[in-house]
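Researcher: Next entry: Kinesin-like protein (Halocaridina rubra).
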Amino acid sequence: MASVKVAVRVRPFNQRELDLHCACIVEVEDKKTRLVNNKIAAGDGAESRERVKDFTFDYSYWSHRDGDQHFAPQVQIYDDLGTDVVSNALQGYNACVFAYGQTGSGKTFTMMGSQSNPGLIPRICEALFSSMAEGREAGTTYKVEVSYLEIYNERVKDLLRAGAPNDLHSLRVREHPKLGPYVQDLSTHLVHHYPDIQELMRRGNSHRTTASTHMNDTSSRSHAIFTVTFIQAKLQSDMPLETRSKIHLVDLAGSERADATGATGQRLKEGAHINKSLVTLGSVISALAEQAVKTSGKTVFIPYRDSVLTWLLKDSLGGNSKTIMIATISPADVNYGETLSTLRYANRAKNIINKPTINEDPNVKLIRELREEILNLKTMLQESGIFGLEANVEKGSLIAALSQKQAKEKELTDQWNERWSETHTILQEQKTLGLRKAGQGVVLDSERPHLVLIDDNLLTTGVTLYHLNNGMTTIGCLPTQDIRLEGGEVLEEHCIIYLQDGEATLESRPDAQCWVNSQFVDKPSRLTQGCVVVLGGSHMFRYNDPQEAARLRREGNKAHLNLSRLSFLSRSATDLVRSYDNLSGLVTLRNCCEGDRHARDGTSSGRGLDILEGDSHARA
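Model: Predicted structure:
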């Protein structure tokens, strides 16, 4: 059991409040936040007692004036709140951080920050990858996936998926009987490094719905949920350990009054939907707070399904999550009503009790329970000192049960080891690859020497990349070869490429047809950046050595291989080769109508890495 942690942050005056010569009506001292109503005169009467309202929270941050002694910068917010999120994720708990407040109160700045002064989300993600780097040295394997959505006018939009404008807000919310609410068809993106997350955040933020209101020039007109799924697996004292954590980082749209924001038309409609979801959020918080203090056995109804926002945050509010709420407020007297409402909102949220549990893999949990039972059975056998027929029967049944459980435990452990061994191999393979958008195309980059298949088959819609092994890479038509090629006069064992000290050398088998830059290979031939390799007369490749290409770029080498010398090729193949002439260690897939999805759909196998159009099941 854990209560929701609540923090309040006071922002500086904005330009509008400075122009209006607003007075500061908020005071902060330790955990206490005080709100003063300047319209009520100070005195001794009952009315004057209503002039000051005090609230106590887990944290109260004064970020009003930079020069103040107790000023709270972005880094302090992270140190107090963000480090707990990272720690909880590493332990296997779900976590949620959401910012609530009126329009222009500093929610997005607290959560996202700026490039020079990052907020909670980028700091949490960066710290998570730093912790992963330390864990990998101890043998832990990690898998991290990211999704980013917004809720606009009660409809869900995938901020990381490319598509037609009419399809952007068409995702449906479903509920799994065990896993809870989820968004159907929401894209997830595998990330290996912190810069990958930075790029996804930048792309998602550029797609968010914003508009100008009287309160804020770039008001967020939607709720945004940035979700990091964090999976870790390791052996701890010879015991498998696998946990899955979900971190929801939520930037809510601003609560607002229509007259204060000057909303009309579409802005008024947006504000109505925003306020509806926030009212529902308030109702959920109130119901959960009432449930926490209720002593009778009567169940309190929680209206999660009254809005998409509360439905998706069901686990984070009263469920399996360690949750933090940050209430951002304006200190200006003109915003007294909104500020008081936010503080009351946050005060109710303090009473919510969640039930966080470590999200352990069911099979790993079963393995641990089986090992405990095996240990108990062994102890019973050792302590059994009874003799006679009945004792022998009892021992026999204990031995049979022990053997059965040992076999089951071994089977589950072997399956777990095999699964994570394959996952680790795939993740290591993908870490050497980099995918990025380039206009309407997708660029696939690799850090390792590789061959890129140049295919003149008109029915082929993808590009295949083959990494070379350190040492020896075998090529032929047998299934046992590292690179398997079919047809085109390819022998069972056609050739070998040796990669040693960063240099690749092709050695042809007797009677095998191999050419390098149109020269027939009858002795070991060194492969250089950009050279064209033809095997069996019909399989054409370009050899890329990223390190050599980088050296040539540094030296300013502008020379390119003249592929027109390959006169023995058919016209179509030669034209295709020319389309790859100016690539330096990169393969660009042009006119990719679903570039973002293809950047995700890469699979690694013995036949190379394929980027295929429409191959939705090829996801890593």
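Model: Note for the record: The chain has 15 helices and 34 strands.
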